[in-house]
Amino acid sequence: MERVTDGVYRLGRKRHNFYVIVDGGRVTVVDAGGSRELPLLEAGLAELGLGLDRVEALLITHAHTDHIGFARLIEKRGISVRVHEDEAAYARSGAAGSQVGTMDLPLWKPRTIAFIIEMVRAGADRGYRLKEVGTVSDGEQLDLPGRPQVVATPGHTAGHASYFFAESKTLCAGDALVTDGLIHGRVGPQLMPDRFHLDVAQARESLQRLAGLSAELVLPGHGRPWRGPVSEAVERALH
Fold first, then answer.
1. Low-confidence residues in the chain, pLDDT < 50
2. How many angstroms separate the CA atoms of 170 and 16, rounded?
């Protein structure tokens, strides 16, 4: 587990992330990695002297298998799992969205193979459907540790959402804004390659919503955290 800033921690592996936000000994988790990564969360919480019983909710940015992975296991522990209302049907069925298949990727590239191996080890090759999933709405401020605000950022999927923690000026951007292109190797603020998005034009439009936030720390779904005004990150991603 990596401490990013006060009360904010990164977990996951080299090419994908999920996050823990601690506020007064209470926890909000953003995204759920792959299906085999619940032990990473448990170990990370243990480092902080906490357990799963301190987790008040798991917020999912979108229902791809590398973000919703252990959500079903969390759900079975009685912890609330929430997605944007436009993502709920996908989270329950796994039947829609922009999930890219292995054969859709450039398998001749070493970075592609490395990414696939990491996803398999994380359990992201297995999709889980959620039985009970709560929903959140655009603009809603949630009564959860860190007081996250929901920011709808569709395009990568129909109901992709980012979560803004105003007090720490931290934005969990999911795959709306990343810092690792995964396939082509470019680092820094960017959109994921077009093939990963359900609607590329909408994904670009959603970045403008993020640009208006006062975030100074961007936590992407893929790549290293980015420090600086989110407006600057968006400008770099669009050019």
1. 96
2. 18
